[in-house]
Write a structure and sequence with these properties.
Layout (H helix, E strand, L loop, with lengths): L5 E5 L6 E6 L3 H6 L11 E6 L13 E6 L5 E8 L13 E6 L2 H4 L9 E3 L1
Parallel strand pairs: 2-3
Antiparallel strand pairs: 1-2, 1-7, 3-6, 4-5, 4-6
């Protein structure tokens, strides 16, 4: 269960924590990371109930992780550059946007369970 405004992801252990801003409102979901100059190495954004994203108006590339309803990684996109539309991930329940190259650096793999803490 996700907290109200921000959260920490333990992947695969507390040594690899990410602080994510939760996009809950329509405005937060629309704006996403647009307007930000960059992300710090352990910062990102999470979109509940999300199966598809775009990177329009963004200033930097990102890595994208899609999770199913059990918080298992079901799809990964590395180094997605601005002005792209990712395909619909029909079984996705949640989308996490992270700094580019995080998937490779943290060795995030399909099938891994993500854990949350407040």
């Amino acid at each position: 269960m996700m907290p109200d405004s921000s959260m920490t992801v333990n992947y695969p252990s507390p040594l690899d924590e990410f602080t994510l801003t939760i996009a809950r409102s329509s405005w937060q979901r629309l704006k996403g990371l647009m307007g930000k100059k960059t992300l710090s190495p352990h910062e990102g954004m999470i979109f509940p109930s999300c199966r598809k994203i775009h990177t329009f108006f963004m200033n930097f590339p990102i890595d994208v992780v899609f999770l199913d309803q059990t918080d298992r990684v079901i799809s990964l996109f590395s180094h997605v550059i601005p002005w792209r539309i990712l395909p619909l991930i029909s079984k996705a329940h949640t989308c996490i946007e992270l700094p580019a190259d995080t998937i490779k650096q943290k060795n995030i793999q399909l099938g891994v369970m993500i854990s949350w803490k407040k």
